[in-house]
Write a structure and sequence with these properties.
The complex is a heterodimer of chains A (361) and B (610).
Chain A: H1 2-21, E1 27-31, E2 38-41, E3 46-49, E4 53-57, H2 63-81, E5 86-87, H3 88-94, H4 106-119, E6 129-130, E7 137-140, E8 143-147, E9 154-158, E10 167-168, E11 177-179, E12 184-188, H5 191-199, H6 202-206, E13 208-212, H7 219-232, E14 236-239, H8 244-256, E15 273-277, H9 280-285, E16 291-292, H10 295-307, H11 309-313, H12 315-327, E17 329-330, H13 343-353
Parallel strand pairs in A: 5-6, 12-13, 12-14, 14-15
Antiparallel strand pairs in A: 1-4, 2-3, 7-10, 7-13, 8-9, 8-11, 16-17
Chain B: H1 20-23, H2 28-48, H3 61-65, H4 68-76, H5 99-105, H6 111-117, H7 127-148, E1 154-163, E2 166-173, H8 182-188, H9 210-221, E3 225-230, E4 237-245, E5 250-259, E6 266-274, H10 284-294, E7 299-303, E8 309-312, H11 335-344, H12 350-357, H13 363-373, H14 386-395, H15 414-424, E9 429-434, E10 438-440, E11 443-453, E12 464-469, E13 472-474, H16 482-489, E14 498-499, E15 505-506, E16 509-517, H17 534-586, H18 590-609
Parallel strand pairs in B: 1-7, 12-16
Antiparallel strand pairs in B: 1-2, 2-6, 3-4, 3-6, 4-5, 7-8, 9-11, 10-11, 11-16, 12-13, 14-15
Classes of the chains: A alpha/beta (361), B alpha+beta (610).
Chain lengths: 361, 610
């Protein structure tokens, strides 16, 4: 896989060099990274790229980005060949040695990195780049089999034995193996809700694995849930805030991937995920305390209905989004505390889990 | 036409300002009062045989005749102020007067006496302006004298501060000099002669001339005006000290002598006066430098009260084309003038008078006017009744008459304006245009515009607008001037400048606008702003747009070049990194890397040029 990346980099560089020596302006073809370039097929279960590409020709105005892209490719080749890694932030600092071609902000280097990733239709880990962010946390009836990074010895990690803490999902999860009797995976938006469920041993009573996503799930977190669910053939239920961000950004990204790195969605998606709550209907049924939708919430919801192939495909979602817009309010997971702090694990979750067929797709 | 033309010629007087200038200082009631007073004085003068030079606005005898008696009354007893003002500010009679008691106090007012009481009408309303106006009058006279004698003018202007707020102004020229007998009259008598029927482009639209300045000097310091003049190498130089008898409007010679003078010919005027010297916009310094710009055939040496010395060299070694006198065009004539012209006509018949006294009136046109007015072409002009003249006046616009001749104008010339700007301001771009002559209300006029951009000019201030009328810089009342209105209503953003709504453009810009006309229509007698006739506004705007377009082209060219420069440096800067990256990935030699870099540079350089 890694060798493959080096081959691709070399091929691209050779092409550029030959064009230059022929007296032509070299160009590279990048896939268009936007929602408009993805399609959703529920049989596949994730956002697929439509294949629209953007040709970036070397001209006077693109010469800087072009040079930076090539230098980023050179860095990647070096990392892969030396079996090393660099975080996005480290790559940004490496560029500081490139004199005029250095990046001024990390957002610039991140963008170029994502370009390179898309150019080779691979993921950044295979190019030697790793993200900074934490992958998410896990607790519950699960044993993870990993290996010691130094000795290579097998390690058995029991996710019930972290006390009040939790297992932290590593940046790469491809090598992990699992042992579990759990019946389902519950992916939770906030660390606060995750802690409440862990503290009261909810995974024992419900016989499940709890995953804290901490906002929009990272690629590693998505991949971890996917591998675990595939391996044990168990369902995944998602429990997030009842607002457009929780639904459109967190849930949709977990289930079908993102428009930005669409070439990777095949691996980084969880098509079997189902939406447990908080649904717009829950706000009514459970008489939850609410806050009014903010300007950005409204825009996000309308955008989802209008432009997002996933929501467009699922009529119940369009209905739910419209319902939310009509009410003009949002409700957080913690809003259930109105009925008592442990109402969520004593009443809400059990009631919902009795009717999983009612979960939104 | 100068007051100091060679002896024997009829002199043209300059008449006092009237009306609006007064309004700025006084209350409404007082303004009304002064307006009427001024009119009365004109009438009195007229009757007394002192012919008013009416270069800019005709006297209106018909209107003035009525209020004349009343006006005299008011003059005879100046308003004591509020006691005579009614609730609405109108004067209310204090007690009933009989015609006889009024008549006992009615008397002729000397022009000089009137001027001493109304000095603000002449441009001496505040100390800063007084110093400027006095200089202006002296400089105008000198330039006119030199030009009429066919001499390239060399002027020396010296302003010394004698004590606080008191200055000695000395203006020396290399003109033809003045014959001995004329010296006292020219400097000591106001409104000396007139030339009325001919219209001619001249500076003499600035006020009442050097004698008014002398009078102001006398009024504020009590000192006489000193004149030295010499008419040729073989002639002696005469030195006079003159005061004005304000009651009689007669010169009074204080001393008279023959002196040694190093100049072969020329005149020096020197006077002491109260004033204030300031720097900055609209200052005396600005006036002198702007005069140098509009009189590029002259050289100026200017010594300021601060001891600085500015020398403005001559840029043109030829005198400007001499302006030609033309007769008034029927379309520009006013009823009052028409009445006077008929009264004074030497022709025996009306048709003949029209032909002889107006330009562009052929026998056929004269006939048409007569028939449109229902008057016999043979009617005696002198015997026409006011009602008949009014009919004649109303008939004129109905007849199609050819535009007046425009060869009577003497513009500065676009090339000279540009050269002048180059000399005066350090800028990156200069442009100028001389429009073709045009006509407003029967008067030919011509607009010239100069523009300088960039360089040392202040970048974040409003553009500096320099206004000129018949080569004379206009310093005051900028906002009320047609030139300002035209400049504001021009869309400068189209030409790459910033411009706030209703304002001049912002940026390092100098705009110079010149109007040359046989009759510049000023908004008021203070002659500081040009009236906004649509034809004039349009011509100025076309001139400004012409310069603006060229500025726009210059700015976009400069921007393109800066872009190209930036792109070139971009290529130089980033292409080596493409070489480095390719070499790191593909592992080729330093020589290969160099080849990649140089080939790519060539390719991009070539594409850039297309």
């Amino acid at each position: 896989m890694a060798r493959d990346a080096v081959t691709k980099i070399k091929a691209q560089a050779t092409d550029v060099r030959e064009k230059i020596l022929k007296g032509k302006s070299p160009s590279m073809r990048f896939p268009l990274r936007a929602l408009s370039n993805v399609k959703y097929d529920p049989k596949q279960g994730y956002f697929e790229m439509r294949g629209k590409k953007k040709e970036r020709t070397l001209t006077v105005s693109t010469v800087k980005t072009f040079a930076q892209t090539l230098r980023m490719m050179a860095l990647s080749k070096q990392l892969v060949e030396q079996d090393d890694i660099a975080t996005k932030r480290e790559a940004y600092y490496v560029s500081k040695n490139w004199e005029e071609a250095r990046f001024l902000e990390q957002t610039e280097s991140d963008a170029v990195m994502e370009d390179v990733e898309a150019l080779f239709e691979t993921n950044r880990e295979q190019l030697g780049f790793v993200p900074e962010e934490k992958g998410g946390e896990v607790a519950g009836r699960l044993v993870i089999i990993d290996k010691d990074p130094n000795t290579g010895k097998k390690l058995r990690i029991d996710c019930t034995k972290f006390g009040s803490g939790a297992y932290s999902i590593p940046i790469t999860v491809e090598h992990l193996a699992f042992e579990t009797p759990a019946r389902f995976i519950l992916a939770i938006e906030t660390a606060g809700m995750f802690q409440r469920l862990v503290k009261h041993g909810y995974y024992k009573s419900a016989n499940c694995v709890l995953v804290s996503m901490g906002g929009v799930p990272t690629r590693a977190c998505r991949r971890f849930i996917r591998r675990l669910a595939d391996f044990k053939k168990i369902p995944v239920y998602v429990f997030v805030d009842g607002d457009p961000y929780g639904i459109s950004n967190i849930y949709r990204t977990l289930k079908v991937g993102s428009g930005n790195a669409a070439h990777l969605n095949e691996y980084f998606c969880v098509p079997q995920a189902r939406f447990l709550g908080i649904t717009p209907q829950d706000i009514v049924d459970y008489k939850l305390p609410t806050h009014p939708l903010k300007e950005v919430d409204i825009k996000r919801a309308r955008d989802a209905i209008k432009n997002d192939p996933f929501f467009q495909h699922h009529k119940p979602w369009v209905k739910a989004m419209n319902h939310l817009l009509e009410m003009g309010v949002r409700a957080e997971q913690q809003a259930l505390a109105k009925h008592g702090l442990n109402y969520v694990l004593e009443k809400y979750l059990p009631q919902k889990l009795r009717h999983t067929e009612r979960f939104l797709p | 036409m100068s007051k100091r033309a060679p002896a024997g010629k009829i002199q043209k007087g300059k008449r006092p300002g009237r009306g609006k200038a007064a309004g700025r200082a006084a209350s409404k009631a007082t303004v009304a009062h002064q307006k009427r007073s001024a009119k009365v004085v004109q009438m009195d003068l007229f009757k007394a045989g002192v012919v008013l030079g009416s270069e800019d606005e005709p006297a209106k005898p018909t209107n003035a005749e009525g209020p004349a008696a009343q006006g005299s009354l008011e003059l005879a007893e100046p308003p004591p102020g509020s006691s005579r003002q009614g609730r609405r500010g109108h004067p209310v009679p204090r007690r009933r007067e009989s015609a006889e008691s009024m008549a006992s106090r009615q008397r002729e007012i000397s022009v000089s006496e009137f001027f001493t009481k109304n000095r603000h009408l002449l441009g001496f309303d505040n100390p800063v302006k007084a110093l400027l106006t006095a200089t202006k009058e002296a400089v105008d006279n000198s330039l006119d004298a030199c030009e009429e004698a066919g001499i390239l003018p060399s002027l020396e202007i010296a302003v010394q501060e004698i004590e606080e707020n008191r200055f000695r102004l000395t203006v020396t020229d290399n003109g033809p000099g003045i014959v001995k007998q004329q010296i006292p009259k020219i400097f000591g008598k106001l409104l000396y002669g007139s030339k009325f029927h001919a219209l001619r482009q001249s500076r003499g639209q600035q006020g009442i001339g050097i004698s008014a300045a002398g009078m102001y000097s006398q009024l504020t310091t009590g000192k006489p005006v000193e004149i030295i003049s010499r008419t040729g190498r073989s002639k002696p130089a005469h030195r006079y000290e003159i005061t004005i008898d304000t009651a009689k409007n007669m010169p009074h010679v204080v001393s008279e002598s023959v002196v040694e003078w190093e100049q072969e010919h020329g005149t020096r005027v020197s006077m002491e006066l109260e004033g204030l010297y300031k720097k900055g916009r609209r200052s005396l310094d600005d006036y002198v430098s702007h005069s140098a710009l509009s009189n590029l055939h002259a050289e100026f040496l200017y010594r300021t009260p601060k001891g600085e010395e500015f020398k403005y060299e001559r840029l043109a070694n030829e005198l400007p084309k001499e302006p030609i006198s033309i007769k008034p065009h029927p379309h520009g004539v006013e009823l009052g003038i028409l009445m006077r012209m008929m009264k004074e006509s030497r022709s025996r018949g009306l048709a003949g008078a029209l032909q002889a006294d107006f330009s562009r009136v052929s026998a056929k046109v004269a006939e048409e006017i007569c028939s449109a007015a229902g008057l016999p072409p043979g009617a005696k002009p002198k015997n026409l009744k006011p009602a008949e003249i009014e009919r004649l006046f109303k008939a004129i616009p109905k007849v199609k008459i050819m535009s007046p001749p425009t060869n009577c104008l003497s513009p500065i010339g676009s090339e000279l304006i540009e050269n002048g700007l180059r000399k005066m301001v350090q800028a990156d771009f200069y442009s100028s245009v001389t429009r073709s002559p045009a006509v407003y209300r029967g008067n030919p006029f011509q607009i010239e515009v100069g523009l300088a951009y960039g360089g040392d000019l202040p970048a974040d201030e409003l553009a500096d607008l320099w206004r000129f009328a018949n080569r004379v810089p206009l310093q005051y009342q900028q906002s009320g001037c047609a030139m300002t209105r035209s400049a504001i209503s021009t869309d400068w953003r189209k030409y790459g400048l910033q411009q706030a709504r209703g304002a001049l453009p912002t940026g390092p810009v100098v705009l110079a606008v010149h109007i040359a006309s046989v009759w510049v229509p000023f908004t008021s007698e203070s002659k500081e702003a040009v009236a906004a006739y649509p034809e004039i506004i349009k011509e100025i705007r076309l001139g400004l747009q012409d310069c603006g377009r060229r500025l726009g082209a210059f700015l976009s060219r400069r921007r393109r070049m800066a872009d190209a420069e930036k792109k070139k440096s971009y290529i130089e800067r980033y292409i080596p990194h493409i070489g480095i990256a390719l070499r790191e990935i593909l592992g080729f030699s330093a020589k290969d890397e160099e080849k990649v870099v140089s080939t790519l540079k060539d390719t991009l350089e070539r594409s850039r040029r297309i």
